[in-house]
Design a protein that fits this description.
5-stranded parallel beta sheet; 3 domains; alpha/beta; 397 residues; Helicase, Ruva Protein, domain 3; Rossmann fold
């Protein structure tokens, strides 16, 4: 069929034409926005799940809900070894800019902008010319004695209080979205949780919505004991059969194309309902199919090409980032996961499989965790962050 009309969109964080299976989360967040704007307390949200399940897509959809309600919004993508202060300052700046132009009190806007500038100037960047500070494009004088102590938690509380109050004057709020939240260093994650805790007690109209790998709730709980009550935790997982079918049939229907039931059966068998795979197989199947309705033979004919694309872009790129020792560790995990559908395996079993002492494998394991290739949901266990990764590794031999 015409590839130009292909309705499927596999991509990192790219919203699919039919965002199937996320209605409940969007509805809940809409209620949270309305409650917080009305001065009623509610919790921020944390999304967690494997790579390719659509966390970033859902995070962006939640942000769109906030924008639709005229909230100020900003987004952060956390990175390992990078301080959170700079990206947070930039995200807050974006949120303030979205609400400031509607405010009727320019002096009050300038006051909050001065606090934001003071917070931002505590950030130092290092480039080839040496240390420099980020200068937010705000033509006001930085405030003194407000959000500039250098203590991230205290500064965030003061900044969030003032920014939330500014938005509250308009009957809305501010929502900050943090992607890859598991990469925030522990002390700064604790500071962010502490600030969210204080803001929630003030009933200030400010929300922080995070997204990250499956061990993010554990990391948050380790940073602050009350974090388990601070957020509403949402596990983002594979799509159930009905929702996966919608993700294939609704976009195709807009182009007057249908699927035979056996084709949908085969697609679900191959993808397990993981959203990235749903889009990837849907796109290739469309290009291979001769016409409507799409058949199971079309799906089977497209499968090798879809698998080849995933092997290079989705799996291979990640495998290539690993050192030889880390690849040995992952191969052992794949061997052990063959009988457990690639669920978590014991680190002691990995060591025994490689005939090594567990302590000697710590550098490889820690390296894989830092690279986001594996995670530890429970003490003494590890699992892949990418669905079907064990199957991919076994297929490379």
């Amino acid at each position: 069929m015409d590839p130009i009309r292909n309705p499927y969109a596999p991509g990192a964080g790219q919203r699919p034409p039919e965002l199937a299976g996320r209605d409940r989360e969007l509805t809940q967040f809409g209620v949270t926005l309305e409650r917080v704007a009305a001065g009623r307390p509610d919790r921020s949200m944390v999304l967690s799940g494997l790579r390719g399940v659509g966390k970033t897509v859902l995070l962006n959809a939640l942000r769109s809900e906030a924008v639709r309600r005229a909230w100020g919004t900003g987004k952060v993508e956390a990175r390992p070894e990078q301080s959170l202060r700079l990206p947070l300052a930039q995200a807050v700046h974006a949120a303030v800019r979205e609400v400031a132009h509607r405010h009727r009190d320019p002096e009050r806007v300038d006051q909050v902008a001065g606090v934001l500038k003071a917070f931002a100037l505590r950030t130092e960047l290092v480039d080839r010319k040496g240390a420099r500070r980020w200068q937010p494009p705000i033509d006001v004088t930085a405030a003194k004695g407000r959000a500039d102590s250098g203590d991230l938690e205290l500064d965030l509380v003061e900044l969030f209080t003032d920014v939330g109050s500014l938005a509250g004057d308009l009957g809305v709020g501010v929502a900050l979205f943090v992607d890859e939240m598991q990469d925030v260093v522990p002390d700064e994650l604790a500071a962010l949780c502490g600030a969210c805790h204080e803001i929630s007690q003030q009933a200030a109209p400010l929300l922080v919505v995070g997204a990250g790998l499956p061990h993010l709730p554990v990391a948050l709980s380790a940073s602050k004991s009350y974090a388990e009550r601070l957020f509403r935790y949402v596990s983002v997982d594979r799509l159930p059969r009905e929702m996966a079918d919608r993700a294939w049939t609704v976009p195709a229907g807009t182009e007057d194309v249908g699927y035979e039931p056996d084709a949908l059966d085969e697609l679900y068998r191959l993808t397990d309902g993981y959203p990235y795979f749903v889009q990837a197989y849907g796109k290739v199947t469309w290009d291979v199919a001769a016409g409507s309705p799409i058949t199971a033979d079309d799906v089977r004919g497209a499968a090798p090409e879809a698998e080849s694309e995933l092997a290079v872009g989705f799996f291979g790129a990640r495998f290539d980032r690993a050192t030889p020792a880390e690849r040995d560790y992952m191969s052992a995990m794949a061997d052990l996961g063959h009988a457990t559908d690639d669920l978590a395996v014991r680190t002691a079993d990995v060591a025994a499989h490689l005939d090594r002492k567990p302590q000697s494998l710590s550098p490889a394991r820690d390296g894989l965790v830092k690279k986001g290739l594996i995670f530890s949901g429970e003490r003494g266990t590890v699992a892949f962050t990418v669905p079907h990764f064990g199957k991919f590794l076994r297929g490379q031999r």
